[in-house]
Amino acid sequence: MSSMLVVGSVAFDTLHNARGSFPKVIGGSATYASLAGSFFTDVQLVGIVGRDFPDELVQTMRSRGIDCDGLEVADGPTFHWEGQYTDDLTSRTSLKTELGVFADFDPKIPERFRQTPFVMLGNIAPELQLSVLDQVERPKLVVADTMNFWIDGARPALEKLLRGVDVLVINEEEARQLSGHHHLVRVASALLDMGPRTLVIKQGEYGAWLFAGENIFNAPAFLLEAVDPTGAGDAFAGGFLGYVARHGNTEPETLRQAVIYGSAVASFCVEGIAVERLLSLSREDIVLRVQRFRDLVDFKPV
Ligand code: AMP
């Protein structure tokens, strides 16, 4: 079993949805991805928090096999994001993005993490993702996530990044924005032309598509009533890469299974507020849900 390196935001989130307001719950792209990955493999986390971040959460992550030695604790407030969801949870508006200590984040990959074969570049500025790429040594697979904020605001750096990553995981709306196309076939072809040899397009409550050469695969979403979709994308990416790292290869079948396992973890993530459901989840729960994913698409041809 190989380990995976996760770099991204570790945050406080204030969430507003039809169920109420949830001030300063734990969030961040790296938090979700690390917790999701930890069900499959050892995780090394690189990020930054302020002294206001609860040590208890760091200890919880450590107890799950997440090495937090690369989590810098700096003077100043932890990154804080505030979001308002529509009542049907299908879209959200960012109300606040308070960078705090994240403003001066300059990821330093500890020496002993540099040869980690599987690397997850969580959603942060593409310049920072590029700096991580410069520090790691011959990784087997690099997965990157991004968002509209960087597609609009840091496109040249994002294009440079895409030439250096193996897998881009991106939601459908952002995939359209980045490619300039609408139809999925064209979107996928344009994004693959930008560098990555594998692409995963997430469609939220409709599942996900995998494009890896001839290996094209569609996974359904699990049918459930979401409570809070925050972090689902990061949980998907962390579960996907964690599964690949556990198996140590990128064979077509492994990638297909990884999409299902990532989807299974993401489906649990949305069942609770913030990381709460990921913290109560067991590996057995995931295995059972994967079986139910299989049942969803199982049929006898003729
Ligand atoms: P997701 O719902 O998968 O898009 O991820 C939500 C997480 O992204 C939240 O927990 C936020 O803390 C984090 N986040 C929001 N905006 C940013 C940003 N500009 N940079 C890094 N992380 C962010």
Model description:
This protein is α/β, with parallel strands linked by helices. It has one domain: UDP-N-acetylmuramoyl-L-alanine:D-glutamate ligase (3-Layer(aba) Sandwich), CATH 3.40.1190. It is 38% helix and 26% strand. The longest helix is centred in the C-terminal third of the chain and has 18 residues. The relative contact order is 0.15. Adenosine monophosphate binds next to strand 2 and helix 8.
Strand content: 25-35%
Q: Total number of β-strand segments?
A: 13
CATH topology-level fold name: UDP-N-acetylmuramoyl-L-alanine:D-glutamate ligase
| Uncertain ranges | none
Give the neighbour order of strands across the main sheet.
5-4-1-8-9-10-11-12-13
**What ligands does this structure carry?**
adenosine monophosphate
Helix percent band: 25-40%
Oligomer: single chain
Primary descriptors:
302 residues; 9-stranded mixed beta sheet; UDP-N-acetylmuramoyl-L-alanine:D-glutamate ligase; alpha/beta
Task: Summarize the model shown.
By secondary structure, the protein is α/β, with parallel strands linked by helices. Helix content is 38%, strand content 26%. The protein has one domain: UDP-N-acetylmuramoyl-L-alanine:D-glutamate ligase, CATH 3.40.1190.20.
SSE topology:
Layout: E1 4-7, E2 11-17, E3 20-27, H1 29-37, E4 43-50, H2 55-63, E5 66-74, E6 80-85, E7 92-98, E8 118-121, H3 126-135, E9 141-145, H4 148-153, H5 155-162, E10 167-171, H6 172-179, H7 184-193, E11 198-202, E12 208-212, E13 215-219, H8 232-247, H9 252-269, H10 276-280, H11 283-297
Parallel strand pairs: 1-4, 1-8, 2-6, 4-5, 8-9, 9-10, 10-11
Antiparallel strand pairs: 2-3, 6-7, 11-12, 12-13
This protein binds adenosine monophosphate.
The site of adenosine monophosphate has 16 residues, from strand 2 and helix 8.
